[in-house]
Write a structure and sequence with these properties.
Blueprint (H helix, E strand, L loop, with lengths): L6 H13 L1 H7 L14 H8 L3 H14 L5 H5 L5 H26 L2 E2 L8 H10 L10 E2 L6 H5 L3 H10 L1 H16 L1
Antiparallel strand pairs: 1-2
Helix pairs in contact: 1-4, 3-6, 3-10, 4-6, 6-7, 6-10
């Protein structure tokens, strides 16, 4: 009897294999079609949350690999049409936000992180298609945070800005936590 193949599952696996190709070497951990942000090690999450071009190119590798566009070398060599380059950059920045929200979640600063149980490959797909206003989704500030009283008085659009302004401080605090655990 013939075996049924779940095409969507097969496509996700192919996307994951191509997208995570360079990540497997760089981070020395396993990634697959079901890997979520919450599954990443603290060290990997910290690397991804850190600002800088080299860190951004790791996102390009994921996005371009998953989308069948090659790797970030093509991006660096300017071997991609400008509209596609812009879309890659937009997708990378949206994913970087999600990574930083995960940092904030692990620190206990936010609740209701958007798509926290969604696999990374599915996040790439959603960010690429700008599904459901992907880039605008922001978690809520945890009511236990000292800034919560000021946050609570703000209209929803300003709350998103408020949370985003905490990102640099969160990454700094997470770095201290992760690097302190290594020593």
């Amino acid at each position: 009897m013939a075996e049924l193949i779940d095409l969507e599952k097969f496509r996700r696996k192919l996307m994951a294999d191509k997208g995570f190709h360079t990540w497997l070497t760089r981070f020395q951990e396993q990634f697959g079609p079901d890997t979520r942000l919450k599954d990443l090690t603290d060290a990997t999450l910290l690397y991804l949350a850190t600002p800088g071009d080299e860190h951004l190119y790791v996102f390009f590798d994921l996005i371009m690999g998953a989308g069948g566009l090659g790797g970030s070398a093509r991006f660096r060599l300017d071997d991609i049409a400008p509209p596609t380059k812009l879309k890659i950059m937009d997708t990378a920045f949206a994913l970087m936000d999600r990574v930083r929200f995960e940092v904030m979640r692990r620190l206990g600063w936010v609740i209701n992180a958007p798509d926290e149980d969604t696999p990374l490959i599915a996040l790439v797909k959603k960010a690429w298609s700008q599904e459901e206003n992907f880039a605008a989704a922001v978690p809520d500030l945890d009511p236990g945070r000292p800034e919560y009283a000021a946050y609570e008085k703000l209209p929803p659009i300003d709350r998103r800005v408020f949370v985003r302004r905490l990102i640099p401080q969160a990454v700094t605090e997470f770095r201290a936590l992760v690097e302190g655990a290594r020593t």
